[in-house]
Specification:
Helix content: over 70%
Oligomer: single chain
Largest sheet: 2 strands, antiparallel
Shape: globular
Distance between the termini: 47 Å
Number of domains: 2
Structural class: mainly alpha
C-alpha cells in the first residue's frame, strides 16, 4: 500500500513530461525548443554544482560556473557545430580564469577546475547537441526516436534486471545494475528503433541501421547513467535533485540523453544513418 503513492507520483510525472516533450517536438518552433533545453540545462547545472561544489568559496562561485558551463548550450541557438565547439573552448578559458582569480580562497583549486570543466563538457556541450539535432532534416523525429530508445532501454533494464538479474554490472558504482538488465535494455531499445522506423524515419534508413542505432544509443546511454551514478556516489547523494516527483532531479532524467544525443548527431552528420 505504501508503494502505491510513490508509483502513482512517478507515473503522473512521467506522463506529464512525455506529453510536454511530444508537443514541444511537433508543435513548437526551434526557438522554443532551444529555450526549453537551455532552461533544463541551467537546472541540471545547478543540480550538478550543488552536488560537486560544496565548499563556502565554491558555493559563492556557483553562479559564475553555471554561466560559464552553459556557454556551449547558449551558442547552440546559431545551429552551428563550430559555434558550439568555440563556446566550449571559451567556457574552458573562462572557468580557468575564474579558478585563477579565486585560487587563494579555494581549498583544492585543481579539483574545482576539473569539476567545473567536466560540468561544461558533460552538461553544457552534451545538451547543446539536442538543439543541433532538432535543426537537422526531420530533426524532431530523430529527437523523438532518441527519447524512445532511452526510455525503452531504461524500462528494459529495470524489468529484466529486477526479474532475471544475477551478475552485477558495476557493483562499486551502482549495486542494483546487472549485466542481464543492460542486455535486456539494449535489446528492447533495438526493437523500439526497428518498430518505430516506418513511422519516424525516412525510407532510406535501413533495418540494419535502425537496429545498430538502437543498440549503440542504448549502450552509450547506459554509460551516461553510470557516469551520473559515479557523481552521486562520490558526493554521497541518492538523487541529483527533487524537482521531478518520483524521478529525482533534471540530471537524473537526462543523464543518458546527454551522452546519447551527441552520438546520434555525429552519426547523422557524417551520413552513417
Amino acid at each position: 500500500m505504501s508503494q502505491t503513492g510513490p508509483d502513482m507520483k512517478r507515473l503522473l510525472t512521467g506522463l506529464a513530461i512525455a506529453i510536454g516533450w511530444f508537443c514541444l517536438l511537433f508543435y513548437g518552433p526551434a526557438s522554443l525548443f532551444w529555450t526549453v533545453v537551455c532552461g533544463l540545462g541551467l537546472l541540471a547545472l545547478h543540480e550538478y554544482c550543488a552536488m560537486a561544489l560544496t565548499g563556502a568559496t565554491e558555493q559563492a562561485l556557483r553562479p559564475f560556473l553555471i554561466l560559464g558551463a552553459c556557454l556551449p548550450l547558449l551558442a547552440a541557438v546559431f545551429g552551428q557545430l563550430s559555434m558550439v565547439s568555440g563556446a566550449l573552448v571559451l567556457a574552458f578559458c573562462c572557468l580557468t580564469f575564474l579558478t585563477l582569480r579565486a585560487y587563494g580562497r579555494l581549498a583544492e583549486p585543481f579539483t574545482f577546475l576539473s569539476r567545473a570543466v567536466f560540468g561544461a563538457f558533460y552538461i553544457g556541450f552534451g545538451a547543446a547537441h539536442l538543439p543541433l539535432l532538432f535543426l537537422l532534416p526531420e530533426g524532431n523525429r530523430w529527437v523523438l526516436l532518441l527519447t524512445l530508445i532511452i526510455v525503452a532501454a531504461d524500462a528494459g533494464a529495470y524489468y529484466v534486471g529486477s526479474n532475471f538479474g544475477r551478475r552485477k554490472l558495476c557493483p562499486a558504482i551502482s549495486p542494483n545494475k546487472t549485466v542481464e538488465g543492460l542486455v535486456g535494455g539494449m535489446l528492447l531499445a533495438m526493437v523500439t528503433a526497428i518498430v518505430t522506423r516506418p513511422l519516424l524515419l525516412s525510407p532510406a534508413t535501413t533495418l540494419l541501421q535502425s537496429a545498430v542505432a538502437g543498440l549503440l544509443l542504448a549502450g552509450v546511454g547506459a554509460v551516461g547513467d553510470l557516469v551520473e551514478s559515479v557523481l552521486k556516489r562520490a558526493m554521497g547523494v541518492k538523487d541529483s535533485g527533487t524537482l521531478l516527483p518520483g524521478h529525482g532531479g533534471i540530471l537524473d532524467r537526462t543523464d543518458s540523453m546527454l551522452f546519447a544525443a551527441p552520438v546520434l548527431y555525429y552519426l547523422l552528420r557524417f551520413g552513417l544513418l
